[in-house]
Amino acid sequence: MSRATLEHAASTLEEAADAASGEDTKERLENQSSQFETLADADRGPDHGKLARHEHVLTEIADEEGGAVANLIAEALESIHAYRETLEGV
Prior knowledge:
Helix 1 (2-19) packs antiparallel against helix 2 (23-41) and helix 1 runs antiparallel to helix 4 (67-84). This protein has helices at 2-19, 23-41, 48-65, 67-84. It is 81% helix and 0% strand. It contains four helices and no strands. It has one domain. InterPro entries: DUF7553. Residues 1-49 are annotated as: Disordered.
């Protein structure tokens, strides 16, 4: 189930990319979505540090874009947080 949260984050970020107004934002979100698809399929899941870096980028994009895109990013971040709760450590 925990990998499903990363898949959900990826699909939600793809929706956010479709809703983005600027090409740069769209590209950044598509990149993030692609990375989460890869992480969901990897033999070993990401650690807290890697996820924190993604969260920082996504929060930055949400702050810049606002509106529906920010809401979709918030949904993706909830999925990422749910995944992080399954990890040991920090």
